[in-house]
Amino acid sequence: MSRAATVLALLLSFFALSSAEDPYLFFTWNVTYGIISPMGVPYQAIMINGQFPGPVINCTSNNNIVINVFNNLDEPFLLSWNGIQHRKNSWQDGMPGTNCPIPPGQNFTYHWQPKDQIGTFFYFPSLGMHKAAGGYGLIRIHSRLLIPVPFDPPADEYDVLVSDWYGLSHKTLTRILDSGSRLSRPRAVLINGAPNSGESPAFTVEAGKVYRFRVCNVGLKASLNFRIQGHKLKLVEMDGSHTVQNVYDNFDVHAGQCYSVLVTADQPPRDYYLVASTRFQKTIQLATAIIHYSGSNLPAAAELPAAPISWAWSLNQWRSFRWNLTASAARPNPQGSYHYGQINITRTIKLSSSTSIVDGKLRFALNGVSHRDAEPPLKLAEYFGVNGSLPEYNLISDEPTSPGTPVKLVPNVITAEFRTFIEIIFENPETSIQSYHLNGYSFFPTGMGPGKWTPESRSTYNLLDAVSRHTIQVYPKSWTAIMLTFDNAGMWNLRSEIWDRRYLGQQLYISVLSPERSLRDEYNMPENALRCGAVLDLPLPKPYS
């Protein structure tokens, strides 16, 4: 073959590969009730294929993930995918504002892609207080072949789902909240569904080898500190972004957050405790799991490593996190530039949480509005343009309401202009830590500080290498600033990851519409989408083209 023919063949092969559809992974999940006994007492949990926690999704960036979910519960059910961006496709987001629930005895097939994403994520049930009963599991997204990863392949990967545990059914917790009462502190902490692994090792390592531990806080409220007896933790990824590889003794993992750490089995062979314990509570609760060195028969030492005490320590740890700007994996690229700190801010939204009594019952709010879900879901009402079913948008302003302003109990929806670069300030005037998550995006948490935010606070921002992520904490009587480009058209949930606050209204939806109404920017509603309420029998709108 001539050189020209060889070059032509290589070019044709490249174009064939580049145009080929990404691989498919198929799953069938049966959602049922099941009995577990993490504290020695039988308890009704939500299981997937008989597992608590649920099955791991082990995939690669850009894979097509197809999951047929059968709801065998006696109530509606939905799954959402914490941190998965669903580019142009909020139809797969699985939130009450985007999807009709799966009725009892029926099924729905999700089809989504982790487009240009890598890292550690999790899925969870998004209706009511279902998350308290389980139904959650880990999502691993690996880099594609030939894409360099900024660390050598580990000997193995281990998944660590940590959570607080209330020891009450999700229906009981729902009744407590609906009655106007607060949730008390949790009864326990769990690691992969258990308060301890007993004498059986949860993880086995070989001396001298390096292991990746993927850690997610899938709980309802508590910030949890993660550590391993006698071992250092090298941070390599958080919420889907590679980080500068600093070494730590322990990590605070706040509600909804995920981290990956590398652990070298470099200690004398014996058993060691992996520990997760509550933070910012008067009474510390903890769970343990055993890491076993292969071939050893020595038990773990009884003395557990101590956790830090103050939230100031936690704030300083956050300040040490840095984005790995040399990693080759996919990174968000706002407006064609990795220099997010040099992009002009087009809008600043300040969101302040509050606690109120509305109609005699406890409610939480953002800028004076306590969200309640609408039927049909907001995305469907918007897509079909249903008169009378689409709630009023932008009821809140970009500034918090004055103290004492009556709280409104309505669907809370704001709009963001497509492809604008926006700054959001979370203000926490209360005495407990908070955590916020934004679906459909990653953002740059550029600053945190005590007191109230002012424009002068921008002088403290990290405008170079803040770690792009999807969930961020706000310390008591403090503020947190994030920046992002709203370039993903759809209907996206911004919520408190403190689950009773979210359930009682501390959330909102952001409608991001492309003025072109084009498939270039957003997909049409899928043919298998479930319908409910006012859109049940309506003809389809004119499709995007």
Automatic annotation (TrEMBL):
Residues 31-144, 158-296, 404-516 form the Plastocyanin-like domain. InterPro entries: Cu-oxidase-like_N (IPR011707), Cu-oxidase_2nd (IPR001117), Cu-oxidase_C (IPR011706), Cu-oxidase_fam (IPR045087), Cupredoxin (IPR008972). Pfam families: Cu-oxidase (PF00394), Cu-oxidase_2 (PF07731), Cu-oxidase_3 (PF07732). Residues 1-20 form the signal peptide. The keyword Signal applies. Transmembrane segments: none annotated. Keywords: Signal. It comes from the Eukaryota. Belongs to the multicopper oxidase family. PANTHER family: MULTI-COPPER OXIDASE, OS01G0816700 PROTEIN. This is L-ascorbate oxidase. The lineage of its organism: Eukaryota, Viridiplantae, Streptophyta, Embryophyta, Tracheophyta.
